[in-house]
Amino acid sequence: MNIYTANLAGLLALCGALFAAQGRRTTGGGGDGNDLDTKENKVTRQKKNEIEMTKPPPSQRAFLVVYALVMAADWLQGPYLYSLYREEHGVSPSVISTLFTTGFVSGAISGSFIGSVADRRGRKAACLVFCVAYAASCILTVSSPAVPLLFLGRVLGGLATSLLFTVFESWMVTDARRHVGGEGGDLSRTFGLMSTLNSVVAILSGVSSEWLVGVAGTRKAPFAASAGLLVVAFGIIWTQWQENYGETGTKTKTGSDDKKTNKSPVDGNSKRVWAVLTSPRVLSLGLASTVFEGSMYLFVFFWTPALKSVSSSPDLPYGVIFASFMAATLASSLAFSMVSARHHASLLLGILGGSAACFFLSAKPASEQSAFWVFCLFEAAVGMYWPCMGCLRGGLVDDGIRAQVYGMLRVPLNVFVVVSLLLTGNGDAYGNVFLVSATLLLASSGALWIAGR
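-> structure tokens emitted (453 positions)
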């Protein structure tokens, strides 16, 4: 057993221990030793425990199934996109860099309007459009080496990514609040489960994509599998999801007094969106999400050359290393559910500060194994980040304009990544990139602390 296989085994054992601890925490109980409890209080507490143990409504279970499918479709193709372009389509590295940049530019442009359209026309409809757009992107990517078709595939991929990280969460939060007492139940638990699902799916997808390539003998196989999963997700959304809208969409469908007052609901919502986006707390969260998620995308691009620069082995087991990263993410996702909801803001500050430390250490790694474990720590921060940010944004943004705000928050993220890629050029600049990311993460944590006070 080599060192990376042993590392992966240890991380998976940690995940198993955390999963077992969660099971004991959920089913454990017993009296609290308080003799002053009245019968009424005990009944109330019993009902509360029963509610906590109740399964989510069918629509939320359908959402989790769809979420697992669409994330699997995303993870399956990710590891082989570059190699498909380079090895099978024969595209030059400079064109590949431009293709990746095109995807982020498309995401930035579509993010500026996609949320507003989803709020007006329906979030379910937007999720269906995602399935179609991403499946078309997969087909265009594998069908022909013609560069114009590859660029069209990246444009659709950027549009689909904006939809994936905008409308699905918006639909889920609104649907949860509609079905569970107007409050959405324990959204913290839902976001934690989403993060855990994403990590598990990522590990399985990495193994499955490697198996598919081995069986089919072509790097096109994972993309075909992704398209198939998206077709299944489309069917579940179509048959089991209910539509929900933002305020402009609701008014458009049900009618309102806007005609009497000659006031456009779209204009009114535009002012509300602007007011939310410019509020100190949302601004600080937007800065944090831009810097953290942008650094995460850059990390995906640069971790390979960074690790290779301090490795004595000519051929690293990238699949095992990737699975180890995802296991670290899964472990932190499992640990997230143990954190009280009132600690989310403090937790996000810790995530930003810890990630900054990881990037500082990664700029000049001391050894191969030290670099590996620092990268695992950053991936653990990623596992905590997603549910934490989801809970914080869910509490600050109204359902009526949620998709619009989420879409606008992704615009600076895509611009950040595009500018970073254009300035760095190649993987040899990872040290400078990590130092800049660390500095920006510290600055965003400071802004978040000030806004919190």
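Residues 57-252+268-452 form a domain with the Growth Hormone; Chain: A; fold (CATH 1.20.1250.20).
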